[in-house]
């Protein structure tokens, strides 16, 4: 946990398309964290274009270093992945693989951090299986998935450029996930 009184929440996700449905979902969830008093940072799209993770190569690109340092300083995370063919995207999975660099830290991996998880896919099956995979990865990285996760079917829900969505209940759910991450971090700090 960071030493300041400010809760830092890092959002990771989206796709290579700027303003993708999954990136818009991430930004709504981060707005919920901000409403709860967190300082937020989003690492999305082109910022996630990293070389394939290889633990045998110690050199890191500036983008990979930025990702690892952001997570190292985070009190909580929100991770959003598009669902591609029933699974999380390679872009997001590769970014999460870089968290192996946190293994030797005093607080390794995602230890002690609340993690909000959201999957956005064109269909319920891919949204739900992607969310399940994100939960499994978070557990493996010693993170604490929030009880509420978001499985968003983009065949039924569309996000807009103004920070909203075609269904207000989806916006409310995403904001709640962001608030839960912030509240978990605040409770852990106490």
Task: Map the helices and strands.
Layout: E1 8-13, H1 21-35, E2 39-44, H2 62-72, E3 76-84, E4 87-88, H3 90-97, E5 114-121, H4 124-140, E6 144-145, E7 150-153, H5 168-189
Parallel strand pairs: 1-2, 1-3, 3-5, 5-6, 5-7
Antiparallel strand pairs: 3-4
Describe the protein.
It is a single chain. Helix 1 packs across helix 5. This protein is an alpha/beta fold and 190 residues long. The protein has helices at 21-35, 62-72, 90-97, 124-140, 168-189; strands spanning 8-13, 39-44, 76-84, 87-88, 114-121, 144-145, 150-153. The relative contact order is 0.21. The longest helix has 22 residues, at 168-189. The protein is 38% helix and 19% strand. Strands 1, 2, 3, 4, 5, 6 and 7 form a 7-stranded mixed β-sheet that branches.
Question: What labels would you give this structure?
Answer:
single chain; 190 residues; 38% helix; NAD(P)H-dep_reductase; NAD(P)H-dependent oxidoreductase
In short:
By secondary structure, the protein is an alpha/beta fold. The protein is built from five helices and seven strands. Helix 4 links the parallel strand 5 (114-121) and strand 6 (144-145).
Order of helices and strands: EHEHEEHEHEEH
Distance between the termini: 11 Å
Q: Could you name the ranges where pLDDT drops below 50 across 5 or more consecutive residues? A: none
β-strand number: 7
Backbone shape: globular
**Mean of residue pLDDT values:** 95
The portion of residues forming beta strands comes to 15-25%
Helix content: 25-40%
